[in-house]
Amino acid sequence: xxxxxxxxxxxxxxxxxxxxxxxxxxxxxxxxxxxxxxxxxxxxxxxxxxxxxxxxxxxxxxxxxxxxxxxxxxxxxxxxxxxxxxxxxxxxxxxxxxxxxxxxxxxxxxxxxxxxxxxxxxxxxxxx
Length: 128
Hints:
The structure is a single chain. The chain is mainly α. It has 5 helices and no strands. The longest helix has 25 residues, at 9-33. The protein starts with 8 loop residues before the first helix and ends in a 9-residue tail after the last helix.
């Protein structure tokens, strides 16, 4: 319908990468700096919570700067699949959530990272 807009595909992928990075870096930073509080809220050990936070920050930075973009996106997908598993099977949270957030949010980030993974982040990356 609007073929002239396809020239902005790499700009769209960059915007997607930056949005994903913003969410994961801020979440990961919270896991690292408030690990005691966050470990209780997610039901994991403090050590695992710190590991999770470092992984989120590293994945977010990789996606943002386009460094090993596919590997970073794959790592973030695995983190989100773990979050979905926890919400469905441990917390029994529905897709939209009942008393808390559902796992639809996590699924959106899986799909966003799949786009990054399949496109290798577009042309505007630092290192493939």
